[in-house]
Design goal:
Elements (H helix, E strand, L loop, with lengths): L1 H16 L1 E3 L8 H18 L10 H14 L3 H15 L10 H16 L3 H15 L8 H5 L3 H13 L6 E3 H35 E9 L5 E9 L6 E8 L4 H13 L3 E6 L16 H13 L4 E10 L1 H11 L5 E7 L10 E2 L2 E2 L2 H10 L6 H4 L2 H14 L6 H4 L5 H7 L6 H4 L15 E8 L3 H14 L5 E9 L10 E2 L2 E2 L8 H13 L12 E5 L4 E5 L8 E6 L18 E6 L10 E3 L5 E3 L3 E5 L7 E5 L2 E8 L5 E9 L5 E10 L18 E4 L6 E5 L4 E8 L27 E6 L3 E7 L2
Parallel strand pairs: 5-6, 5-7, 7-8, 8-11, 11-12, 12-15
Antiparallel strand pairs: 1-2, 3-4, 4-6, 9-10, 13-14, 15-16, 17-30, 18-29, 19-20, 21-28, 22-27, 22-30, 23-26, 23-29, 23-30, 24-25, 24-28
Length: 747
């Protein structure tokens, strides 16, 4: 078996190392390039193979294949492959408009040849033909799908060609990248201007779209876009979205989405965006601004006095900000994957993330969004790595990324959940005053799940009569505010989970704002999908997501028959982490012959084989009994299912700054050498059927990476600590009476 694998790897490496003839003149002469690309694409396709027994790679395979077919001028086949890609990507035609520019380009090339008309004429014909076939609910997305950055695609192509300077050959990987870069640029450059022009005409036929400025009592100005169906002539409920990601295409999308569901779509941009010349301070003014916006909307002749809100991430946060200062006209909110400001962003459980600097630049660099900068993954990985390697304080990250940033520094001045964060959204008794119906959606893989669940839990804690429903399933940050893709985190999700979040949201609006039928999926207040069981469960509260618990103790099975049995003798496992070492090699724990999990700066504990199926459902809790030789540290934890075939499946994660684990508003430093308790709270919710024959693997450790602040343990403000503060290596004693409480569901 090992010989076969070795031979296969050698074959793959030889295939990818093989070079193709590609004249150096093609790198500088566009006419020669045009002639050479089809032949190069054919050669790449001849060697392009779908990995065996790896269905999750099928999407990537088809995504690459239809582009190669386009580059080879096999337009008819590329359209078929693109259709297959969409079916693999998402069920029920929910991805029917995905990669639309490529389809229109291919269609136009076929029309151009068949009807012998100019290519621009063919593009318009192809677009009109395709647009007629799109379901009405997909048409609002056309503008955002087509809004690719042609300049960025051009630069990518130029860079790919620059690598071929003075070369008469090209290797497989570079050839693949060049063909894709070429067709990305050609597809968008060739279709976007014409399609956008045609789309404007389509909009004028169906909608009334108005954009104007609203001046607030404070003197600040906000840009508002209103979208109405021409056929709807009587006042309707308005669906409001508060959008910091300003852009004509995206603003129109949110407005048109509401309009096609027979509402008035209203989109307001935050301060400093689009036509607003005010200062842009994300998160800080939504509560006061949105009250005035809702008041204005409710008094317009096209509104019947009822307003609902929808949106995800920052747009989800905005709805909770509006609910803090509740206007009588706001009848319901649908917060999706809501940022829990100060809870899970810009810090998660009090640990600031490097990503915050990238996001701040994204939304504040100009009046819209700086997509080119934000999507430059190589740049930001380089910046974060440079900071990590330098050992400088976390406060220096803004300077390393370009120049000092007062928003970044202001956020760092509030490491605890203090009044700065509390004033932005409802806090404690504020939740008791929120008596409107709420529908929250989030996912097991949602980066803002902790925030979404925080609002849900606090609302029910302080308002015993809260009419607040939750839908949670195997979705990531994008999926839980759009539709359930067929795959999440590389895993095929159950068919019942592949639902349209848009349809759910607007069915909810029909239910609340138009006295319609309650959405079928909302059979109880908490509605969760059990991964691997192809079922939805419905319970009255989060506590009912499980009926019992299983304690997983941090003990070595060599000295104990079961990790699920409380140890009789106290022992500990020692872990040492040297913060001075910035060249630590990654370590992995083999879970089977073909899979492993990362154990860098971590230790692992593996259970015995499970003798029966379990449905693990809910969030992890418990406590760590530890002692350290410093005043603080940041923990992280991951729970995996190791399937009978050895494949690892991530179930849940948790991280926290130890000094804030008991109270996220007040720092309580640890006493070096003293055994302390670190409670496990705010872990990631999940629900999955873990089949008999599996094992559970618990990985616990210390946070030390370029993606997060580094806590050196001095007790000073972590943002100010540098590598000079690292001192002796951190030593953690993980006591074996530490345990993780695993929630188990039984019907």
């Amino acid at each position: 078996m090992k010989i076969k694998i070795l031979l296969a790897l050698i074959f793959v490496n030889m295939m990818h190392a093989q070079k193709f003839y590609f004249p150096k003149t093609a790198a500088t002469d566009s006419l020669i390039l045009e002639k050479q690309i089809p032949g190069l694409a054919l050669q790449v396709m001849a060697r392009y193979r779908l990995p065996k027994n790896k269905p999750k790679y099928h999407i990537t395979y088809l995504d690459n294949l239809f582009r190669l077919q386009m580059a080879a001028k096999d337009y008819k086949r590329s359209i078929t492959t693109l259709s297959d890609y969409r079916k693999e990507y998402a069920d029920h035609n929910m991805a029917g408009g995905s990669s639309l520019a490529y389809e229109i380009y291919s269609m136009a090339k076929l029309v151009e040849k068949d009807k012998k008309i100019t290519f621009p004429e063919a593009v318009t014909t192809a677009f009109n033909t395709k647009y007629k076939t799109l379901p009405a609910k997909l048409t609002p997305k056309v503008g955002t799908i087509m809004d690719g950055d042609v300049g960025d695609y051009k630069n990518t192509l130029i860079n790919a060609l620059a690598k071929q300077k003075d070369k008469d050959s090209i290797d497989y990987s570079s050839a693949m990248a060049l063909c894709k870069a070429y067709i990305n640029f050609k597809a968008y450059a060739g279709t976007k201007p014409l399609v956008m022009k045609s789309l404007t005409l389509k909009e004028q036929e169906s909608f009334i779209i108005e954009t104007q400025n609203l001046t607030l009592k404070s003197g600040n100005t906000l840009t508002i876009t209103i979208v109405r169906k021409k056929e709807n002539t009587t006042p309707l409920p308005a669906i409001l979205t508060n959008n910091i990601y300003a852009g004509e295409a995206l603003d129109k999308f949110f407005g048109k989405r509401a309009a096609v569901y027979n509402y008035v779509g209203v989109v307001v941009n935050t301060r400093g965006k689009r036509d607003s010349n005010d200062e842009n301070n994300p998160f800080e003014h939504e509560s006061q601004d949105l009250y005035e916006v809702i008041d204005w909307v409710s008094k317009q002749p096209w509104n019947n006095g009822k307003v609902g809100m929808i949106g995800g991430s920052y747009l989800g946060f905005s709805q909770w900000a509006a609910a803090k200062n509740l206007h009588p006209a706001l009848k319901t909110i649908v917060p999706q994957v809501s940022v829990g400001i100060g809870i899970d962003y810009p810090s998660q459980n009090n640990i600031f993330m490097s990503y915050m600097m990238r996001w701040i630049r994204y939304v504040t660099n100009n009046k819209f969004t700086d997509k080119a900068d934000f999507s430059n993954h190589k740049k930001w990985d380089s910046i974060n790595t440079a900071w990590y390697k330098s050992g400088r304080s976390f406060r220096a990250l803004d300077t390393l990324s370009g120049n000092p940033n007062k928003i970044f520094q202001r956020w760092l001045d509030h490491p605890g959940y203090d009044q700065y964060w509390q004033k932005m959204v409802p806090y404690k008794d504020d939740f008791a005053k929120i008596n409107i119906p709420v529908l929250t959606t989030t996912g097991y893989y949602d980066a803002d799940q902790i925030g979404a669940m925080y609002y849900y839990q606090q609302h029910h804690r302080y308002n015993k009569n809260a009419s607040h429903y939750l839908v949670i399933g195997p979705y990531d940050h994008a999926g839980a505010q759009s539709y359930g893709y067929n795959y999440a985190y590389g895993n095929l999700i159950d068919p019942v989970a592949r639902i349209s979040i848009d349809d759910l949201a607007f069915s909810w609006f029909d239910y609340i704002l138009k006295d319609g039928k309650k959405p079928d999926i909302l059979k109880d207040r908490v509605n969760f999908q059990v991964m691997g069981d192809n079922t939805w469960k419905h319970v009255p509260n989060l506590e009912k997501m499980h009926s019992s618990t299983l304690r997983f103790y941090l003990q070595d099975r060599k000295s104990s028959p079961s990790v699920f049995t409380q140890p009789k003798l106290q022992k500990f496992t020692t872990q040492t982490v040297d913060f001075k070492d910035r060249d630590t090699k990654d370590t992995y724990y083999a879970t089977g012959k073909k899979d492993s999990v990362s154990t860098t700066n971590s230790i692992q504990f593996e259970s015995e084989v499970l003798d029966k199926d379990l449905i693990i459902s809910g969030d992890l809790s418990g406590l760590f009994n530890i002692s350290i030789n410093k005043k603080d540290f940041d923990t992280n934890m991951v729970l995996y299912q190791i399937q009978p075939d050895g494949k690892a499946f991530m179930l849940s994660t948790h991280m926290v700054r130890a000094s804030y684990a008991k109270n996220n508003a007040v720092r309580q430093l640890l006493e070096p050498g003293k055994k302390e308790q670190i409670p496990i709270r705010n872990s990631m919710f999940m629900s999955r059927k873990v089949i008999k024959g599996s094992k559970l693997l618990l990985v616990v450790g210390v946070n030390k990476s370029p993606d997060w602040q580094i806590n050196y343990g001095t007790g000073k403000d972590v943002s100010d600590e540098t590598i000079k503060d690292s001192g002796i290596p951190l030593e953690v004693k993980w006591y074996n009476d530490s345990y993780v409480e695993i929630p188990v569901y039984k019907d």
